[in-house]
């Protein structure tokens, strides 16, 4: 599992500046998805794209080291869409992003997952139980596609009584497949024993314990992620998925849910089939220093957890007492609403005038908790009650100025009184700090050298509490021959909500590479952020009761072409 949202690898810029004469038939790469969409650490994978790799020569940028991409200069007839990826044995498991580019332009970035388990391809026909594809346990990851309308894929495994099988499907959430998949477990008679559609947003996971020795079937089909008027199972070439089937160890969450390097201790793992040597694991800090990776060769999945600005404490049994668990601020706490109707109580001391930010992360980390938070004073008076801070945001947020010296109590529960194994949360109580973020209008831009300037609109979100410093917006690392004057977003000018950058290139100059737009506080140079953009083709609308925001990444791209 991966928590997204919100948690990114460092950028490894593989960029090429070159000058080429191309024919009128030259075309840029156009890629919506990769098939297969992943591979095993240390293995070489033959991959194809849906549309075109574009006119040769074609290069590839990757978001992190560990992948060697080889595109044939002169592909064989009928294999123009194919290339290979050699995954280094030392590559970190997880999500990578690829972008293909040539002299004419670049594709959008597309995901590629690196796993630890042996992999196999789906083999048709496999719709009926009698045609079910055999999968050898203890574990495998299957790369499949629901290729046409009405398509159903079926797999069979042998289980012993008491064995626990985890069937975990990745499709919509990380691969951007426009599908809402369903997983079923059936017995040899075809009776459905278990069915799940949404676990990690649209992607399902079933944890199934065999009631008897025998053959069991795993069946998957899908509906459109954006519902339409059809009533049958959906399918298309873009309905790609990765299905992990394992009776081996598999993680759901860690305790704590975030990590601070000063702790220098392993975190505990919660999941299924975990042996003693995998019940704790030392996180590995990612290149971005914003997240840490939990992985091991025996595990059926990996987990990426955020880095914390303070050491993280765990809830104790005191949260179930009236007085609650004592906290010392600032703090970050991992807790769990383990039972329906459970209420966790924390208490802390604060001084009059202190500005505190209360933040809960659960839904955005991929867990089902819909946080309901209440703040009381020492006399039991309700001061604030927070459910959803804004529409479609299920993680509670509160900025609050303490009215008087004294002790305060914070109550945490689920909005609908649900609870269980996966109802974990990360609560932080920190001094309120004004901040900002930048959003570019597009993921990639094209500039014609020697022609009129390229205008790039950048939106500035001055987050609550409002960031009142002026912000200088600039482009970092531009090559010689390309210029862009920094622009200052001034608070007094229409609230400082947007700026327009103007990029120019000398005649005849060509370039392909990452575009890094930065915003820096004029007063505090240490306050700096990189612009993100919504990634097209990876962000289905997801018109559901619990939607997930569009995927935004900082991996912008610039193409400079001859006039």
Automatic annotation (TrEMBL):
Peptidase C-terminal archaeal/bacterial domain span: 151-219, 344-411
Matches recorded under Pfam families: PPC (PF04151)
Gene3D superfamilies in the record: 2.60.120.380
Keyword tags: Signal
Signal peptide: 1-26
Protein name: Peptidase C-terminal archaeal/bacterial domain-containing protein
Organism of provenance: Gimesia alba
Organism taxonomic ancestry: Bacteria, Pseudomonadati, Planctomycetota, Planctomycetia, Planctomycetales
């Amino acid at each position: 599992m991966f928590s997204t949202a919100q948690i990114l690898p460092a950028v490894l810029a593989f960029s090429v500046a070159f000058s080429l004469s191309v024919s009128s038939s030259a075309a840029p790469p156009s890629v919506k998805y990769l098939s297969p969409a992943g591979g095993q650490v240390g293995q070489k994978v033959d991959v194809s794209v849906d549309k075109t790799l574009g006119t040769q020569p074609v290069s590839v940028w990757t978001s992190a080291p560990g992948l060697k991409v080889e595109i044939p200069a002169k592909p064989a007839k009928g294999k123009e869409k194919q290339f290979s990826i050699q995954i280094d044995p030392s590559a970190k498991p997880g999500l990578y992003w690829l972008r293909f580019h040539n002299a004419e332009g670049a594709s959008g970035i597309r995901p590629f997952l690196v796993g630890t388990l042996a992999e196999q391809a789906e083999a048709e026909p496999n719709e009926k139980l009698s045609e079910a594809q055999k999968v050898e346990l203890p574990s495998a990851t299957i790369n499949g596609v629901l290729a046409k309308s009405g398509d159903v894929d079926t797999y069979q495994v042998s289980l012993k009584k008491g064995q626990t099988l985890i069937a975990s499907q990745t499709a919509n959430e990380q691969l951007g497949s426009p599908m809402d998949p369903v997983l079923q477990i059936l017995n040899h008679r075809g009776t459905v024993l278990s069915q799940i559609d949404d676990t990690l947003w649209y992607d399902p996971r079933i944890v199934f314990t065999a009631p008897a020795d025998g053959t069991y079937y795993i069946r998957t089909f899908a509906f459109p992620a954006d519902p339409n008027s059809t009533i049958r199972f959906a399918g298309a070439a873009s309905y790609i998925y990765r299905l992990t089937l394992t009776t081996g160890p598999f993680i759901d969450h860690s305790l704590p849910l975030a990590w601070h390097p000063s702790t220098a201790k392993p975190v505990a793992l919660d999941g299924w089939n975990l042996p003693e040597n995998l019940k704790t694991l030392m996180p590995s800090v990612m290149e971005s220093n914003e997240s840490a990776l939990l992985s091991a060769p025996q595990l059926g999945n990996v987990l990426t957890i955020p880095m914390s600005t303070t050491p993280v404490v765990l809830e104790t049994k005191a949260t179930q007492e009236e007085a609650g668990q004592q906290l010392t601020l600032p703090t970050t706490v991992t807790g769990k609403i383990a039972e329906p109707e459970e209420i966790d109580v924390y208490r802390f001391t604060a001084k009059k005038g202190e500005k505190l930010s209360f933040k809960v992360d659960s839904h955005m980390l991929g867990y089902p908790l819909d946080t309901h938070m209440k703040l009381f004073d020492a006399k039991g008076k309700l001061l604030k009650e927070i459910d959803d801070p804004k529409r479609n945001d299920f993680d509670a947020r509160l900025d609050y100025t303490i009215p008087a010296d004294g002790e305060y109590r914070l109550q945490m529960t689920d909005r609908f009184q649900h609870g269980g194994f996966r109802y974990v949360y990360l609560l932080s109580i920190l001094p309120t700090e004004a901040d900002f973020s930048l959003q570019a209008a597009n993921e990639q831009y094209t500039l014609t050298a020697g022609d009129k300037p390229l205008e790039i609109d950048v939106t500035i979100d001055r987050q609550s509490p409002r960031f009142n410093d002026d912000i200088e917006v600039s482009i970092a690392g531009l090559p010689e021959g390309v210029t862009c004057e920094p622009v200052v977003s001034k608070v007094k000018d229409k609230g400082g909500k947007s700026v327009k950058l103007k990029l120019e290139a000398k005649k005849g100059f060509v370039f392909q590479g990452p575009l890094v737009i930065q915003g820096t506080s004029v007063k505090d140079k240490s306050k700096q952020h990189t612009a993100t953009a919504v990634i097209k083709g990876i962000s289905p609308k997801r018109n559901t009761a619990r939607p997930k925001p569009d995927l935004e990444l900082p991996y912008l791209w610039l193409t400079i072409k001859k006039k």
